[in-house]
Amino acid sequence: TVQCSRPPTSLPCEAMAPKRGTKRQAEAASPVAKKPKVDPAIAGVNEAIEQAADLPESCRKMLLASVTSALGAPSDERHEVQVAVVAMIGQVVEAMQAKLQEAVDAQGASVGGVEVRRTDLQVALAVVGEGLTAAMDDFDTKKKTLAQAAEAALWAKGVLQEKQEAQRMGDVAMVQAKESKAALDKGIEVDL
Q: How far apart are CA 99 and CA 93, in angstroms?
């Protein structure tokens, strides 16, 4: 805590102004370095150089360091060294372009293979669809035939029950006729 020499009736020490020589000094703010503006065409060349995987690191650094000065100068005012750097950059960019074209061609071939496979699958789907349609038609026909057969079986069962009832009634009549005949035969035998 800070010792205050003022009487207790006055303001607390914390509220008082600081003594001389203790002013805060403004901290020297370090200026933020601005990135230099880069021409978009040169930025594209820099990106191509950075992506060149087969380029040794020392060559990459040399080309990146000299891109702006070599490509920034008009072509008719370039020094021999700048012309040589532009030629090297051209080789790197052409090599990158060739690799990218190979990748595009490979992807194109892959897409072509996928398209062929897609066509084959569509043909197979059409064949399966036709087979499914034929199977559904066959199923419907057999279902109708089964319904007709079930109806015929039900009718035949009804006819069978009627015939069985008629048979039972005929059997009862036959039993009565046999009993009557037996009684007559007995009566004839006894009387004659």
A: 10
The answer to whether the CB of 54 falls within 8 A of the CB of 79 is: no
Residue 88, both tokens: 């090297």
Sign of the Cα torsion 154, 157, 159, 161 reads negative
pLDDT attached to residue 108: 86
Joined together, the tokens standing for residue 125 give 């789907």
**Residue numbers of the chain with a pLDDT score lower than 50:** 1-2, 26-29
For 125-156, b/e burial (b = at least 16 CB within 10 A) is eeeeeeeeeeeeeeeeeeeeeeeeeeeeeeee
Contact criterion met (CB below 8 Å) for 68 and 86: no
Distance of CA 66 to the CA centre of its chain: 46
pLDDT for 67 equals 86
CA-to-CA dists, residue 75 to 45, 65, 71, 80, angstroms: 16, 18, 8, 11
CA distance 156 to 46: 94
In the numeric block, the tokens 């087979």 are attached to: 131
Q: Provide the angle, in degrees to the nearest 10, between the axes of the packed helices 40-51 and 80-191.
A: 70
Structure-token pair, residue 55: 């380029």
Q: What is the pLDDT of residue 192?
A: 65
Those residues whose C-beta lies under 8 Å from the C-beta of residue 48, and which sit 6 or more positions away, are 92, 93, 96
DSSP state for residue 4 in the 8-state scheme: -
